[in-house]
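EI: anyone free to look at a 172-residue chain?
SC: sure, send it
EI:
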Amino acid sequence: MDFNELVQKRRSVRVFHPSSVEEDKLAKVLEAACLAPSAGNLQAYEIYLVAGENERNALARAAYGQDFIAAAPVALVFCAHPARSEPRYGRRGRDLYALQDVTIACCWAMLAAVAQGLATVWVGSFDPEEARHVIGAPEGQLPVAMLPIGYPGEDPPAKPRRDLEDLVHRVG
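SC: here you go
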């Protein structure tokens, strides 16, 4: 599928088929995240792969009862790692570039999952300290997004988007 078709196909899926995700497909998702652009190529982020049922249940609790996280066979937790960016870029690296790096990597993982016939949904509503505890991330790493991944158990319709005329502002 070409890139535009891939972008059109991506949906936020919250119902997952119980089938496990093949390791080769998961590897392609993780490789895409690793190849995402980052400030100074520092990759100021960490990815935690959560496959255990108990841990996925704990992530769902950390996400205020979003049980679909536990229903997915795997979840990725993307953490900003500001200490990787701060030495080169100072406060801007710590406060902005690390967040940009982790969100770009998560987006690339989402699209790679769709390209593999998998489904995802970006989860940003959760208690970051509780999530950090579940995954065992050290202090200084900030959980930014959870990405449950699995085969879709639903096919939600496309949601309306803003008109480009409302969204895009030409300058010059």
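EI: The chain has one domain: 19-153.
SC: 👍
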